[in-house]
Amino acid sequence: MELSPGVVGVLLVVSILLSIGAIAAGVMAIQGERRVRATYSRFARGRREDVVTLLEMHLEEIKALQQEVRRQQAYARQLRSLLARSLSRIGTVRYDAFDDMGGRLSFSIALLDEHGDGSVITAMNGRVQTRTYAKPVTGGTSSHNLSEEEVQAIAQAMESGTVRAAEAVRGLPGPEAEGPPDEPVGSAAGAEPQDAGRPA
Length: 200
Fold this sequence. Notes:
Helix content is 48%, strand content 15%.
């Protein structure tokens, strides 16, 4: 059976199209293989193990990293606990303790940790002698009589610590951060001194 020239032409065109399609498919397959090889090379990082072995190795590495992260978190909590008891809030008030002395050489200084615990130290400078007093502070107040300047120094220290804590929180990398430090147990702003006069 002889084919007509028209049928032969159609078959020839179809053959050419199929050949072009096969070539295109081959080129795409080669490019895909190259991408797979490149991805595998990055994944394998020069190793010659099979994919399953590499996956197991990567899983072990992830587990080790998770353990290290947990250790670092525990260490950070320990540091946080230590820092909470260190002096981080300081307030100083200078004044003239006596009418015949100028220059505000007398002072009250509060040295507190982040919970408002610590001491307030007062030095009253006179012409003949200087008197120094130290009083314990707990939660931003004291069981001892506080002068007006000592109350001001404690309030200043508590406020300065709150400002520094807010600045530190604003500098954190993102919402997954732990959050702002704990608020102080007490505040000297509302503390009423038992004796408004200066220490005797």
